[in-house]
Amino acid sequence: MSTRIVVTGTDTGIGKTVFSAALAGALDAFYWKPVQAGIEEETDRDAVQRLSGLSAERVLREAYRLKTPASPHLAARLDGVTIDPVALALPEVDRPLVIEGAGGLMVPLTENLTYIDVMARWRAPVVLCARTTLGTINHSLLSIEALRARDIPVLGIAFIGDENRESETVIASMGQVKRLGRLPHLASLTRETLRAAFAQHFAAGEFLKDVT
Prior knowledge:
The protein is an alpha/beta fold. The protein has 7 helices and 10 strands. Helix 1 (about 15-25) packs across helix 2 and helix 1 (about 15-25) packs across helix 7 (about 190-200).
């Protein structure tokens, strides 16, 4: 079975779509976002295709495309859609697969199902994306604890933003999690600048290792 990596965040708006694009491009992988809420502007799938350099067939179509930009459970209800967990089974592909979640771990997909529930069924290793700004220690450690409580393998943590060495060190140490690297904010975000920044700050091979 090909490598499968779930990219999630400690919160929404962290930059995990940009990170997912960089990771999928670096691994020459497939990309899949199972649930997209809000499709009037550029979707995350569109952004990943634009930034990753992957061909269109490598950027898989969502299982659910919801019109309303809201929490998936609310967007589905307003759109008259019922999200079926069976439809969220991981696709079978012949290369690494990067799966991007929506918001944080506890984002509800239905009134009875959260994203972390689905991740527990997938059993795929998770990369947790975290800000480097104030509040990141609390949010990151809580997210790591939630993953471990469900026996979900944690591949490591990827920081996004300006360097904050103290917070990054404390999270990695207290959370007993691997610090994979830090993706800085880019003044000009293009396919080329993103690829260069990822290569400078991360080692792609670290994402293909087994979680111990």
